[in-house]
Amino acid sequence: MKSFLGRPAMLASVADLDEAMVAVEQGADLVDLKDPTRGALGAWPVESVRAAVEALGDRALLSATVGDLPVDPESLVEAARRMAATGVAIVKIGFFAASASLDELAAAVRALAAVTAEGTRLVAVLMADQELHLPLLPMLASAGFKGAMLDTADKAAGPLSRHLSAPALADFVDRVRRLSMLCGLAGSLRQSDIAPLAALAPDYLGFRGALCGAGRTSRLDPLKLAAIRQAVRAASNRATATAGKQVATDEMPTSSSAGIRLAAAR
Asked: How big is the CA angle at 146 (ends 143 and 147), to the nearest 5 degrees?
């Protein structure tokens, strides 16, 4: 599996199967099954995820969240295994530092190593609007996580850039990439955020509210999704030209075609 420095892909969060189909048709690189009415990382019902995998798993790279769960090792392991059993390519786990210490977060990471050992591709989601425990990153890599991303827990508190400076975001991306993990940036991102964040060379940028008609809990708007996809592609092309060359790493795919190959290889 490869990712390319300077070419972030687009993650589109979708609330149901109809929205997922729209996202696939509009060329989203990674389709994230997430219920925005149930929190920052609201989970779809397992049966609905399984149905999406059956309908779209050979056409798109799908990820799914396990929900806004407490940082309890046993609960997170159970939830990760239950979601992985649907056949979804990537399972996202939220680490909410507002309700857990670094030691408690680390204990959950160690427990989840048993899930990655079973072949499940886990991506950790850290919250930029809570305490950011950077020492957790090497622990995630050691536990076999495929990636780490930044998001925000409070969607009413503004975009990612309001909570972390550009140097801090660049440092996060650099740390994750040096650990050979996939890196993502999300959190109420707007179209105006695309160019500056693409310049940091994350593997993907994640969107929900910017794709919707009237806020993140409203319906996906195909025209807005297409506009964001076009802007991400343009920024990716500029970043690639600036970088001068592609640097391949043994990571998650960052294009739709690579995503399809990954899904087919499961």
From this structure: 105
Contact 188, 151 (CB under 8 A): no
**Does 34 participate in catalysis according to the annotation?**
yes
Catalytic site includes residue 92:
yes
Q: Are 127 and 95 in contact (CB under 8 A)?
A: yes
Distance between CA atoms of 148 and 183, rounded to whole angstroms?
5
Helix, strand, coil shares of the chain, percent, nearest 5, are 45, 20, 35
Residue tagged active-site, from 2, 34, 146, 155: 34
Instruction: Give tens-digit pLDDT for 103-123.
Output: 999 999 999 999 999 999 999
Distance CA 71, CA 179 (A): 23
The confidence band for 2, taking pLDDT boundaries of 50, 70 and 90, is very low
Record the pTM: 0.88
